[in-house]
Amino acid sequence: MSTDQKTQSQQILFTRGVPPAEALPAEDLGECFDSVVRNDTSVVLQYGQQRGYAPLRKQLAEEYGVSDDEVLVGNGSLQLQDLLSKHLVNEEDAVFTEQPSYDRSILTFRRNGARVTGIPLEEDGIDVERLERALEREVPAFLYLVPDFQNPTGATLSLEKRRRVVELAERYGFYILEDIPYRKLRYRGEDLPLLRELDSAGRVITVSSFSKLLSPGMRVGFMIGSKGLIDDLTGLAENTYLAPVLPTQAAVSEYIGRGMLAPNVESLKELYRPRWEAMTSSVKQELPGATMFTSNGGFFVGVMLPEDANTQNLVGRAKEQGLVLTPGESFFADSDDGEPPRGERFVRLPFCAVTTDQIEEGVSRLAGLV
Amino acid sequence: MSTDQKTQSQQILFTRGVPPAEALPAEDLGECFDSVVRNDTSVVLQYGQQRGYAPLRKQLAEEYGVSDDEVLVGNGSLQLQDLLSKHLVNEEDAVFTEQPSYDRSILTFRRNGARVTGIPLEEDGIDVERLERALEREVPAFLYLVPDFQNPTGATLSLEKRRRVVELAERYGFYILEDIPYRKLRYRGEDLPLLRELDSAGRVITVSSFSKLLSPGMRVGFMIGSKGLIDDLTGLAENTYLAPVLPTQAAVSEYIGRGMLAPNVESLKELYRPRWEAMTSSVKQELPGATMFTSNGGFFVGVMLPEDANTQNLVGRAKEQGLVLTPGESFFADSDDGEPPRGERFVRLPFCAVTTDQIEEGVSRLAGLV
């Protein structure tokens, strides 16, 4: 069979945002593990380091221009979001997100008692007018944003909106949780400032991880916030899991210390850029009636299908055609206007763990279904 | 200075139950990490394995005579106890423990909304008459037991009592959570059956970890229960931390697969046995009026000081003498009889991470204070 024929008969996974196997630097990480376990044994294999492995916290503190006390490293960023929700959300509090947003974060906030309201996402990020109207009705415990190459749409929050959102947080007195796991995977354009860099009132909490830059199975996530907040979350973490897993954190620290992270990110961008290009051009070509969010990086392109698209049992029909999709509804919280969310028209298209052939074939199958 | 003089001027830590640095097999573990990261890269460094690393689950299933579906491996056993509490405890439910019991478990159950009642611990384990009386008043969500070399006392539940507790669980319809992290570290006598082995009604859930047998910093804990329960907890785990940390689980599996765990446990027993002997004989000699729980293994000897002992600010006064103790009160839940718990008279004496000289000197300092 030719490559084309092979691709045509393959099942194509447009589901979770995972790195492909070839993106995982096994040799280098294996050496880093071996080195830290042998050379820092009494720290790495012992109880302790409740705030995370100290050398990694120091590296992160330097990178983000904060003190070590403002950094907590834990077992993946979702666990840290769970702890933060426990700490900040009282029963029946609101949490605001972009609409659509990361499905697991929505679930995590809800499981901790929050009513989660999605504020519509525009081409350049959250709709700030709608956010302000929602704030006049009620102030949330926090606003969750993925400002760079958002999951699930790929959208990036513009500089002007970053400023306005931070102003609103200061004016109304709520926290912004900025989640930036994709930020370093930019395929086009220039970095915008972090929300944290625009904030002078301590309203921004930053969370990220090494899952997209190094390895998801390591589960090394981190959070940056005020010392008081980090102290509280450390106590909660200690009561929940005693101490974080340390060999993985130490291996990440060693990997960074050896100067390997930046080149790894560069090689990931080289690997992912053609896939990102294939996805955006395939969507333009095959789904001309759909609204595609502009993605300049990360793992996803998000598409809102036309009003008249056939979305009836789309996931089921796609599966019959060998195309595996995530149900669009998962990414939608409650609407801010009381209308039912339009999740059935939304499709998240992850492009990193599929080849350009698979991308073209997959989008073509999708087009045939709607 | 002679060794004796040095010990006399040292601070002595009778606090947390941690292994000493010399007990951590760094070289072998370093190799295991390197091997699994290189050889099983696409599993170990990737998302997935929500129930834990499959080869490790298989090894544990074989050891405990259950199916793979009945095993969940996660980031330390306390995290699994937290998930189990979330699942089983409804607001204001009771959880029963031994009195005294593991302080962090008591906290974890309480944080999940449980009223935690301690049933007095006797020389041969929980007081079954008192347990039965408490059960007549109310049936708990579960009974938490550390049947082998209990934390904090060192006591072991007798065979007869194991049978009676399991009968009560079947009759009244509650779960028993048996926590067995110390079980393989027996310095005297023969193993008793697990509660799980005496249970024909599926009332026993077993939890343990590799923290005491290999390394605490790895945070590899596991739980064994019915497939239905493990399915539910896996869902809850996935919503909380997405996927477990995998390189550590894989390294443990490799370490077991290379036949290294059993010899390591033997060498730990050789290291710890003289310390255990020193602790029990020092307590007998220096604190003749105290009631010592009989410990035949594990990490701790527990002592109930005499009624007339001076326990006023004992932890503070001990610290002034260079002796660091954990406050006894931490190990006490609410009493089953409405009386105030007698935690101030209780002292937990961990012996694994201190030398025999330190043990003798430490117990002597303690005797001088009470």
Give your account of this protein's structure.
2 copies of one chain form a homodimer. With 370 residues, the first copy, chain A, is of the alpha/beta class. Chain A folds into 2 domains: 3-24 and 262-369, Aspartate Aminotransferase, domain 1 (Alpha-Beta Complex), CATH 3.90.1150.10; 26-257, 3-Layer(aba) Sandwich (Aspartate Aminotransferase, domain 2). The first copy, chain A, contains 14 helices and 14 strands. In chain A, strands 2, 3, 4, 5, 6, 7, 8, 9 and 13 form a 9-stranded mixed β-sheet that branches. In chain A, helix 12 packs parallel to helix 14 (356-369). Chain A starts with a helix and ends with a helix. At the A-B interface, helix 2, helix 3, helix 5, helix 6 and helix 10 of A face helix 2, helix 3, helix 5, helix 6 and helix 10 of B.
On the 0-100 scale, what is the average pLDDT of chain A? 96
Number of helices of chain A: 14
The radius of gyration of chain A is 21 Å
Oligomer: homodimer
Largest sheet of chain A: 9 strands, mixed
**CATH homolog superfamily of the largest domain in chain A:** Type I PLP-dependent aspartate aminotransferase-like (Major domain)
Distance between the termini of chain A: 29 Å
**Beta content of chain A:** 15-25%
Question: What's the helix-strand series of chain A?
Answer: HEHHHEHEHEEHEHEHEEHHHEEHEEEH
Detail the poorly predicted runs of chain A. Answer: none
Number of domains of chain A: 2
Question: How many beta strands in the DSSP annotation of chain A?
Answer: 14
How does the overall form of chain A come out from the CA principal axes?
globular
CATH class of the largest domain in chain A: Alpha Beta
**Which secondary-structure class do the elements of chain A indicate?**
alpha/beta
CATH architecture of the largest domain in chain A: 3-Layer(aba) Sandwich
